[in-house]
Amino acid sequence: MEFKERAFVPVLFGGDINTYSVARAFYEEYQVKSWVLGKYMSGPSCYSKITNYRNNPQMDTPEVMRRAIKKLSQKYKDKTILAIGCGDSYVETLSMIKDKLPENVVAPYIGHSLMEQLIIKENFYKMCEKHGIDYPATLVYSPEMGMDVDVKFQYPVILKPSNGVDYFHHPFEGQNKIYKLHSLEEVKKTIRDIYASGYSDKLIIQDMIPGNDEYMRVLTCYSDRNHKVKMMCLGHVLLEEHTPLGLGNHAVIITEPNDALMEKVRNLLEELEFTGFSNFDIKYDSRDGKYKFFEINCRQGRSNFYVTNSGFNVARYFVEDYVEHKELPFKTAQEEYLWMVVPKAVAFKHVKDPQMKARMKKLIREKKMVNPLFLRGDLGWKRYLRLVKNHLRQYSNYDKYYK
Q1: Which residues contact 275 (CB under 8 A, 6 or more apart)?
Q2: CA angle, 374 as apex, 373 and 377 as ends, to 5°?
Q3: What angle separates helix 88-97 from helix 62-75, to the nearest 10 degrees?
Q4: Residue 370 has what DSSP assignment?
């Protein structure tokens, strides 16, 4: 693999597929090696030839993150350091310390006060109402309500934390990313379990929108340093993960435009004066024909390589905006491309819609398909064995958890 000297150094915080996808985008566009700073020596960026991987269990805390950034800013004092979060806790910490970083460091994020509002789902839904963006019928639960829970939706219902960052700071046995609950008794038990862990913020209880994974959508946007939306890429999710802590993570996506839907989000982001990447989870509700929004992530999603694969390299937006200071054109993804991180046999077994399967086959035939983890030239034996082991594990995961 060949590398080039550039005027910038990517420093990516995290350890999962998000960091590797962004590092691959930087390598493919600029032939640079990214620094990846995560908590543990795990994930696809570990042992990669396109990353310098360092770990510290406290990497998402302000003091440790700032110290790591300062060290690299001194090492590359003549270059621009692009500090990029690839997970919610890292992004929140970057927004907290962005104004206290060395002069040659760019952290392309909104201020912490706005980010605090947006990461709380309850606040996001209030903003959706203002902009005519639909979301599921919702009950916001707070600890003061005790067990007086008046759930008016038909069971099963969805329960999830309003503050996802704080929620995962309090792990407990049986912890799920989201919960599908079939009775009031299950709702009460789950509430007790969550608050017993030390989590203290609110919970979201929602009407469960019918339909399998194929009703899901994911929207990724980029807003430049002047708060103008410059890129929007909508993906039709065909399959998600179903393990307890991975539930809802994307596994198969086909790029698919919806200009009317994207325009509503563009208006929301520009009124908020948002900066950087944003990512939205959406589900089509066949009962009323509306697209219902679940949340906003103030970063590129873990499946961000579906955007790069569609012709909108995510690394290029950081560089052209913050290093080269270019005026970016507004573009939306219109062509179909296929992204997947499970074996093809798993995808074709669990995607149900025959038309979607036909589209998948067509895109594979046309070489418009990518698995971002398997980059030619970056398959040293240590990394390759870990990737293959995790890849093959998907067969048993879906057999066990996919209902």
Answers
A1: 108, 109, 110, 223, 224, 225, 227
A2: 125
A3: 70
A4: E
Q: Which pTM value belongs to this model?
A: 0.93
Render 14-63 in DSSP notation, one character per residue. --SHHHHHHHHHHHHHH--PEEEEESSS-STTTT-TTEEEEE-TTTTSHH
CA R_g for the chain: 21
Rounded distance between C-alpha atoms, residue 35 and residue 52, angstroms: 5
Alpha helices in 53-176 (DSSP H): 62-75, 88-97, 112-119, 121-130, 164-167
Q: Is the previous residue joined to 136 through a cis bond, with omega within 30 degrees of 0? A: no
pLDDT digits (tens, 9 = 90+) for 328-385: 999 999 999 999 999 999 999 999 999 999 999 999 999 999 999 999 999 999 999 9
* Six-digit token string for 8: 């910038």
Left, alpha or beta for 23 (phi > 0: left; psi -120 to 50: alpha)? alpha
- Check if the beta carbon of residue 280 is closer than 8 Å to that of residue 265: yes
DSSP of 284-325: EETTTTEEEEEEEESS--TTTHHHHHTT--HHHHHHHHHTS-
